[in-house]
Amino acid sequence: MATNRPLPVIWTPRASAEYLSAVRYIAEERPAIAIEQGELVRQAAGRLADYPQMGRAGRRRGTRELVVPGTPFIVVYRIQEQDARQIQVIRFLHGAQQWP
């Protein structure tokens, strides 16, 4: 019998570094905003565990993109249903960034 257990959300080293860089950049001028936006991103990405399809179809084949409400950020991820069964965050972008 299949269960609908949440899938773990795993950030690649690249996506983690992009996230940290963005939050640090904001924190240079506006520390409180950096904390707020960082938390909004973490909450939105965490919801992917239960609702992996909530993002839009990605611009790259096999990806999905979650536009994080209240922020200018996009979480690019893929759903791995086979061996690892996980959500893999592969990029973290500002909406103004060129992608792909």
Describe the structure.
- The chain is of the alpha+beta class and 100 residues long.
- Helix content is 34%, strand content 26%.
- The chain contains 2 helices and 5 strands.
- A hairpin with a 5-residue loop joins strand 3 and strand 4.
- Helix 1 (13-29) runs antiparallel to helix 2 (31-47).
Distance between the termini: 39 Å
What CATH calls the topology is YaeB-like fold
Q: Helices and strands, in N-to-C order?
A: EHHEEEE
CATH architecture assignment name: 2-Layer Sandwich
Strand count, sense and closure of the main sheet?
A: 5 strands, mixed
- The number of E-state strands comes to 5
CATH top level label: Alpha Beta
Cross-sheet strand order for the largest sheet: 1-5-4-3-2
Kindly report the name of the CATH homologous superfamily: RelE-like
Shape: globular
Discrete helix count: 2
Task: Give a quick set of tags describing it.
100 residues; YaeB-like fold; five-stranded mixed β-sheet; 2 helices; globular
Briefly summarize what is shown.
The chain has 100 residues and is α+β, with helices and mostly antiparallel strands.
SSE topology sketch:
Layout: E1 9-11, H1 13-29, H2 31-47, E2 56-57, E3 64-67, E4 73-80, E5 86-94
Helix pairs in contact: 1-2
